[in-house]
Amino acid sequence: MYKIKHAEFLALDIKKFVIEAPKIAKKRKAGQFVIVRANDKGERIPLTIADSSIEDGTITIIIQGIGKTTKELNAMQTGDFFLDVVGPLGKASHIENFGTAVCIGGGVGTAIAFPTAVALKEAGNKTISIIGARTKDLVILEKELKEISDEVFVTTDDGSYGFHGFVTQKLKEIIDCGEKINFVLAIGPIPMMKAVAEVTRPFGIATVVSLNPVMVDGTGMCGGCRATVDNKTVFVCVDGPEFDAHKVDFNQLMTRNKMYNDKEKIALNHFECNYDIAYEKAKSEIYQ
Amino acid sequence: MTEISKKDRMKIPRQAMPEQNPLERKNNFLEVNLGYTEELAKLEALRCIQCPKPVCVEGCPVGVKIRDFIELVAQGDFLGAAAKIKEDNVLPAVCGRVCPQEEQCEIKCVVGKKGEPVAIGRLERFVADFERQNVGIRTPKLNPKTGKKVAIVGSGPAGLSCAGDLIQKGHDVTVFEALHEIGGVLIYGIPEFRLPKEIVKAEVDALKDLGVEFKTNAVIGFTDTIDELLETEFDAIFIAVGAGLPYFLGIDGENLNGVYSANEFLTRVNLMKAYRFPDFDTPVFDVKGKDIAVFGGGNTAMDAVRTSKRLGAKNAYIVYRRSEVEMPARKEEVHHAKEEGIEFLMLTNPLKFVDDGNGWLDGVELQKMELGEPDSSGRRKPIPIVGSEYVRQIDMAVIAIGNGSNPIIQQTTPDLSFNRKGNIVVNDANMKTSKKGVFAGGDIVTGGATVILAMGAGRTAANAIDQYLKDSNW
Predict the structure, then answer these.
(1) Nearest by CB to A266, which of B246, B278, B406?
(2) What's the pLDDT score for residue B284?
């Protein structure tokens, strides 16, 4: 059992959890993830570790409630327990002083990009962060990223805050302004990562993405998370989760991530019929 | 008990084990084999001629005193028989179900030279079940505590068998498991209808009662490294993490939706209980009324294909590139699969998976094969018949062609020796690795093998670890 020491919504349906997991807190490096299971009927889902505190023995994960499992997790509150938290899993981000590094986070991907942005800054990079969100209310970690970045740009699809447009447009703008970029990290929805890869490709800028396929065990045992990178099959859990964006078959990843869409709907209906009250209560926290 | 001559004993026919009717069982996950009754068990035990030199024991990787326990069964002392088995085997109810006895103890049986061998496996199963169901699993006496601590990495058959032996020798034992349940392949891999999970749990609980500590959610290499375990708490380590990295065929279309490794398919169903979706959250491809194919000819392939049938598949095929004679699966499993309506496409090799245009599996292109000369495995090599290619429409495919070795320990333990295949190199006599204090056994050493071979390795390691803890010699 892993105690939730603190839980709060950062934005609509995006919740931050600080979880007691001293061993993982001590070991984790930027880019690594945990597998979480809420209860004994729960799915095992991978979540990137956003932050940790060795002193407090805690790790931070940020969850966007989309499907049944993530909504159920987001209904949990301070003092509750996750049944299983295992990790840190996967390979750590490759960190070095590239020169100038741009970290792009789309939606909840900002939480995943955050620890690597911290590590890149600590390694001596000039760090530019771009946070993309659909709308102003969904922008997360702006303050935290400002503390560790040389520059931070926010883009919103609807123009309600910051730059009106997509992260890729902002990135292109920075490149066009003559900024010499040596490294780009892009984490977010697959179409965003794919678009970033296409922006940097002509300029030959090293670009890394963190993939989020369906996983079960997270240790290489099942092969469910396989993806195609550089025309070869990889297991994202043990070979990744970060890969060269210019070599990833994003279309296949998108298709594979839709494998259980019909089941997701069934599970979500099943959940919302049974847990309506708990979930509404949890959601209302944000307005308190 | 009345004396009965050797000749009369040999006249008794081998007793069949009652089974669930195939037509019923193909729709449920309940155990296929129902086990002997007391009467059947005694009768079968009488078939044993009590050889002065019991060669059957030589065939058992953990050296169960087969003759002696069978004699106790014949006398009706079933609890005595259980205690006798447990001197050498900590998982008798598991082994009685999944060991390939026909290739091990039973193949050596003298009675079997002229007729059918004594059904040693069925008797072992009966004895273990009798004890568990009637008085609960009784625990043996432990040696006085030595104060030494051993870490076991992996809670599958090798790890559990090693744990059982070491705790009895007086050492403290902690078993680390990456998943959230104890049992490794016994839990995630072997299906309920062949090995009920309750039985695994009962045998694991018996180890807990003996004092073995279990830690789940511990991926050794990541959560703790081997070096950290050695430096902080433990005097010796036994690595028994299994194979755990599924092979794929390496053909086009293998990453289409609807193509699974056997590990993933079975883990979803067994460990995560996808067959009870949506009461349990983990889904699996809905095979109801669909056509599915499993590629491979081993026990795992049989487990996967029979599972898909139970989930409602219309047609379920085994596709294997050699002939039935070369199939590595146990005869019993093949027989059961056929009874349940599984179709066997032998001498057939997949060439590529066909896309439905939306990234989903629609079919498989197959090619007929013929057998040529024996290859390095001693089995006749399958040779493609040119022009025999055809496409079969299927909705789900499961690849069950074995496992490579998991890279996590290798990546995080620099001074441990591995071979080219990623298996840990050990001295077979004592399971010692290249690293002082670290032993290894089971599939991570041998590549994919059987439950009992892994248990045998666990037992060999336990003896060697016990010796090492006494003399520190490496």
Answers:
(1) B278
(2) 95
